[in-house]
Amino acid sequence: MAHPWRDLHDLASAYRRKLPEPKGAPLDDGRIHEELIPDPTWARSSSAARARTVLQQALVFPTLRAFGRPEIFGADDLLTYPQPAVIAPNHASHIDTSLVLYALPSRWRRSTVVAAAADHFYDNHAIGAVVSLLFNTIPFERRGRLRGLRSSEKLLEEGWNVVIFAQGTRRAEGSLNDFHPGIGRVCLRANVHAIPVWISGTGRMLPPDRGIPRPTKLRIGFGRPVFPQAGDDYASFAARLEEAVIGLGSTEGRRELIGRPAIDRFRAEV
Amino acid sequence: MRPGSVIEIDKRSPPVVFHHGEGFRLERLPLGSRVVYPPSTVASLPDTDDAIRAALLRPAGMDPLPALLRRGMKLTIAFDDISLPLPPMRSPDIRQRVLEIVLQMAADAGVDDIKLIVGNSLHRRMTGAEIKEIVGPRVFSAFWPEDLYNHDAEDEDNIVFIGETDQGEVVELNKRAAESDLLIYVNINLVSMDGGHKSIAVGLGTYRSLRHHHNVSTMMESKSYMDPRHSALHHSANRQGRLLEQAVPCFHIETTLNNAMYTPALDFLQKPEWLWTRRDAAAFYAAKQATEAAPRRLVRKIFHAQKAPYGVTGVFAGEAESVHERTLRRLFEQQAVRVTGQTDVLTVGLPYICPYNVHSIMNPILVMCLGLGYLFNLYRHKPLVRPGGVMILTHPVPREFHPVHHPSYIDFYEQVLSVTTDPREIEAKFEEDFAHDPWYRQLYRTGNAYHGVHPFYMWYWGCYALDYLGDVIFVGAERDTVRRMGFRTASTLEDALEMAETTVGPQPTLTHLHVPPIFLADVE
To answer: Which of A260, B155, B252, B346 is deepest in the core (most CB within 10 A)?
Structure first.
């Protein structure tokens, strides 16, 4: 466990340090990026975790409940699945991160980091620090750079679950484009399974072109884990995972029963 | 079926097994001592699902369940929490089977406003995984968490005042249950104190309603609380139950189990020592050595992972009192044992589990409650031990508490028992503070902690025995812990018997209560 003073020091330095602009940085050399954007290790310390729990419970989750009254499916099953795992939701809005964390059982939430777009969240060091503190994020470089993938693999090896939005960016609600094969690389190299997650409602609550959220019913469902199989390559694993996410969102699955009385789900679960 | 029996120890008698917490002791009792053994296991019903359907379609004193269900109604189903049965039942739990059939009937009738509530009273909130084990995956995945949740006795917004009985007992109830068009309660009647009106009045009640019977005066008048006809606790709960049933239509479903509580590995505990085969003896020896050699935490984990292969012996449904009468009759077929005369010294081995430490630690206060509360009270008519007699218990009584489940117990042990062990004084001086303590309240509501007042109830549970007995001696226990509770320790049973002689005189008569499996002594 990190010493509280060291945590405080790291926390303070996160604000003090001038974080460089990652845009236009070299594309393929992870080491350079590590030097450019420091991994906010302080955010994974026990003190930051305690602060995060307080902030989430006092601020983030009540707001989410007030605006979205989220309905959660399948989260209890997570308790029976091994950790660590990659958590792979579809992505329609910035709300998704809070919703996923909200829906995770606390045993999972405590050991979960979120891959956040380095070019979006970490180009301003204050925003980067706040986001890291609130959601335990790590900077994840996009557009073919490898550092985000490498640090995800490393964190998985250390026992953390990693939330990766494999679509790469927010997409209009209901549309899924091909999952990036990077998620396959992370799962195969770290030899962990991925949990498909279907989110709906966040795109209407806070679409990419809006600044203020509007109250919308939110729903989130967790599916059965997708395990790496012999013969999988990065792309085929990513495709299987995407299928699982689509399956969760499809009208054939239990999702059609979202919003219906529990007794209908009971009847459907024979 | 072999009925329960009272065996006299003679020269040829084998040594007797005593439970000793998460271990065992093998003791040679003095010649002439009596050992009371439970009856053998009653055969279970040939088809449980058929029996459930039959009970629901032909309930006692009420219309068939399908006739009570209609589209647009508000239906609430509450059920017993993790404290029953002990040990937990091997899947499928009887509550799961009942719930699935009741819900199917509700679905067929077009009922869609249904809530399932754990009747956990002031017990700890159950975790999702624990609830799933009770209700089964089908019910769980359909209803959890919005429509399947723990009762919260401290949620002022969701508690309603029903009224007061003619004796001034306040009746409060879970709001959702109180506002329902029909409230169904599914119970497991493991012992005769369970069930009846107590299920709803206590299971979905609050501190304000429970305090009318969970107190020293009532417990002193409950002789015993395993005999509902002579139990002031039950009389009080019955008055509350009758009042609340005027406000909410209630449909009770009660179930009874046989006493098959051990897995094959521990099957030897199911039968008397004199019926043991060599294999049983070898299994016992291996188990005893293993429990002594292995780390305590591992042993505890193994014990708590045991799931009992209970068989269902009865399902009864309908109006509370007629149902409960039938339930008790069936229960006594399995549990009643006739014993003639009282004894000077009563010995009993305390096992690793009681209703309040499932997946948890049996702390010293729970040990007291199990020994002087539950096991002392396993009688009808009069106690097995004579007034002023001695009770000798075997348990290590470690000073060990589960910080998440039993936070108020720790303070009760440190702050209350260090001042006094007198139940009346404890009740007068300390109960209110603990019951209203905001921190315990918070832990009860949001964590998995027993209510702040719960350790007091445990102490009251044993108050009649405390008053009645001349001495209580623990064998093989931690001296300081036992002394804190006001009892004495001995390292061996022989020493304990010698100590007992100073209280009851020389050459005392001795009776050993060979539990579990649980039974009820009808003392004549």
So the answer is: B252
Please give the mean pLDDT across all residues of chain B.
95
Within 8 A of B142 by CB-CB distance, chain A residues are 262-263, 265-266, 268-269
Distance of residue B384 Cα from the nearest chain A Cα, in angstroms: 46
Q: Do B128 and A76 lie within an 8 Å CB cutoff?
A: yes
Q: Smallest Cβ distance to A263: which of B107, B128, B144?
A: B107
pLDDT of residue A124: 80
Tell me the two tokens of residue A185.
């690389």
**Is A172 in CB contact (< 8 Å) with chain B?**
no
Query: Which residues does chain A have within 8 Å of residue B114's beta carbon, measured at their own beta carbons?
Result: 261-263
pLDDT of residue A9: 54
Q: How confident is the model at residue A125 (pLDDT cuts 50, 70, 90)?
A: confident
- In angstroms, the CA B416 to CA B447 distance is 23
As a whole number of angstroms, the distance between CA A64 and CA A68 comes to 6
- Give the nearest chain B residue to A265 (CA atoms): B142
pLDDT at A10 over 60: no
Q: How far apart are CA B277 and CA B268, in angstroms?
A: 9
Nearest Cβ partner of A263 from B111, B141, B144?
B111
| pLDDT value for B222 | 96
B112: how many CB neighbours lie within 10 A of its CB? Answer: 16
Residues of B in contact with A81 (CB under 8 A): none
Give the type of residue at B350: L
Distance CA A212, CA A216 (A): 12
Give residue-wise pLDDT tens across range B485-514.
Answer: 999 999 999 999 999 999 999 999 999 999
Report the half-sphere exposure of B475 (CA within 13 A, side-chain side): 27
Confidence at residue B119, expressed as pLDDT on a 0 to 100 scale: 98
Q: Does the pLDDT at position B248 exceed 50?
A: yes
CA distance B101 to chain A (A): 11
Question: How many other CB atoms are found less than 10 A from the CB of residue B55?
Answer: 24
Model pLDDT for residues A69-116, shown as the tens digit of each residue: 998 888 888 887 889 999 999 988 889 999 999 999 998 999 999 999
Question: Is the Cα dihedral A209, A211, A216, A218 positive or negative?
Answer: positive
Chain A residues whose beta carbon lies within 8 Å of the beta carbon of residue B112: 261, 263-264
Residue B475 parent element (H or E): strand B471-475
Phi, psi of A55 (to 5 degrees): -65, -40
What is the average per-residue pLDDT within B294-322? 96
Judged by DSSP in three states, B185 sits in: strand
Kindly indicate whether the ipTM for this predicted assembly is greater than 0.85, answering yes or no: no
